[in-house]
Specification:
The complex is a heterodimer of chains A (about 120) and B (about 110). With about 120 residues, chain A is an all-beta fold. Chain A has strands at about 5, 10, 20-25, 30-40, 45-50, 55-60, 65-70, 75-80, 90-100, 110-115. In chain A, the strands form two sheets. Chain A has a six-stranded mixed β-sheet with strand order 2-10-9-4-5-6, with no helix packed on it. A four-stranded antiparallel β-sheet of chain A has the order 1-3-8-7, with no helix packed on it. In chain A, a hairpin with a 6-residue loop joins β4 (about 30-40) and β5. Chain A is globular, with a radius of gyration of 13 Å. Chain B is an all-beta fold. In chain B, about 0% of the residues lie in helices and about 50% in strands. In chain B, strands 2, 4, 5, 6, 9, 10 and 11 form a seven-stranded mixed β-sheet that branches. Chain B has a four-stranded antiparallel β-sheet with strand order 1-3-8-7, with no helix packed on it. Chain B starts with a strand and ends with a strand. The chains are: A mainly beta (about 120), B mainly beta (about 110). The interface of A and B includes residues 44, 46, 59, 102 and 103 of A.
Chain lengths: ~120, ~110
Amino acid sequence: QVQLQESGPGLVKPSETLSLTCTVSGGSISSYYLSWIRQPPGKGLEWIAYIYSGSTNYNPSLKSRVTISVGTSTNQFSLNLSSVTAADTAVYYCALTAAHRGGFDPWGQGTLVTVSS
Amino acid sequence: EIVLTQSPGTLSLSPGERATLSCRASQGVSSSFLAWHQQKPGQAPRLLIYGASSRATGIPDRFSGSGSGTDFTLTISRLEPEDFAVYYCQQYGSSPITFGQGTRLEIK
């Protein structure tokens, strides 16, 4: 079955750019919406962005700082979040959405990114 | 932005009992584009329900979803020990995609 794995630095300094990659195995990403979602420690879920068939959609609350893209490898996609602060400390998840179904399924296991000097 | 409000915040029940979780939207969710996710401590969320009432692959039939418009419900007919977790509703009918704040289902 399709599995996702996030990768990237676990620690980012304030004002720098957070960069994460999601690697998808067991299937092609070409027919899915590709999303990033985050969860601050002890808090709820916040959708960040998705990319689908070359088109992107961003959460307005983060839009000025976020870029989502499909990687050079055919089964990877990435997230860049610029000018980070401590408020961006969270577990970051990548997830897929099948166009005919909806909802996020599957999810990656998540990666904790801490913003601190 | 559609705001989703889940109630109750915490639900205390015993195994074998029936659980009813509510999700209310600040405006109508188009085409019942509403999903429910389960999250256990230290784990990623897992999709349970999409399209308000369709079970995701591998989800037991004790989980059911219902509702339309602004009011949605997740029902767990007979609680198993592994069902105690946090549940989130999520709407994907309009942008931005939003989640409810979660309902914690705990063992009484």
